[in-house]
Amino acid sequence: QGQEKLSCKLKKENGTHMVLCELGNPMKAGAQITVDMELSVSGLEDMGDTITFQLQLQSKNSPSSANASVKVMVPVEAQAEMDLRGNSLPATTVLPVSWQRVEDSRRQEDHGIKVEHVYQLHNKGPSTVSGVTLHLAVPNQLGGRFLLYLLELGTEGGMRCDDPPGLNPMQV
C-alpha cells in the first residue's frame, strides 16, 4: 500500500558482493511485497552482453525450500558517442597559374603543394570502446587525373591503419 525505503547494507564474502536488505520484522503471514531496487555497477566493459544477479529471500524462521535462490540475467549495453574531427594543414592552398607538374619526377614539390590532413577520433563516453573501425574515403582522382596524391598514412596512440590501394604509386 505505502512505499517505504529499505535499509540495505553492502557485504563482501568470499569475493562476492552482496546487498542485504531488511524487508520487515516481523512480517505477517501471507504478506506480499514488491521490491524495486536500483543498483549501480561499474566495470562492465568486459562483462559481455549480460550480468547475472543471484537473488534469495531468507527468513530467520525455520528453513524451507522457499529460500532457494533465483538467477536474474540483465542485459548490458555499453554506450559511447564518437566524434570525428579533421583539419587540413594548410587550410587553404592555391597553386600559381604558371605552375606545371613535372612528369616522372620523384620530388614532392614537382607534384604540387603538400597538404596534411589530420583526423582525430574522440570517445565522448560514457563507456570505453574497443574494436572501432573507421573507413575514410578520400577522392584522389578526378577525370583520370590526380586530384590528391596520397603519399603516406600514419597513426598515433596504438591504432592500426591499412594502406589504401594506390598509395604513392609513383614512389615520390
From TrEMBL:
**The keyword Amino-acid biosynthesis is assigned to this record:** no
Q: Where in the cell is it found?
A: Membrane
For this UniProt record, the keywords arranged alphabetically read as follows:
Glycoprotein, Integrin, Membrane
Cellular-component GO terms for this entry? external side of plasma membrane; integrin complex
GO-annotated molecular function: integrin binding
Domain of life from the UniProt record: Eukaryota
The segment(s) forming the Integrin alpha second immunoglobulin-like domain are: 3-76
How the protein sits in the membrane? Answer: Single-pass type I membrane protein
InterPro entries listed in its UniProt record: Integrin_alpha_Ig-like_2, Integrin_alpha_Ig-like_3, Integrin_dom_sf
Q: Which GO terms describe its biological process?
A: angiogenesis; cell adhesion mediated by integrin; cell-cell adhesion; cell-matrix adhesion; integrin-mediated signaling pathway
**Domain Integrin alpha third immunoglobulin-like, chain residue ranges per copy:** 83-172
Instruction: Specify the protein name.
Output: ITA2B protein
Q: Which organism is it from?
A: Jacana jacana (Wattled jacana)
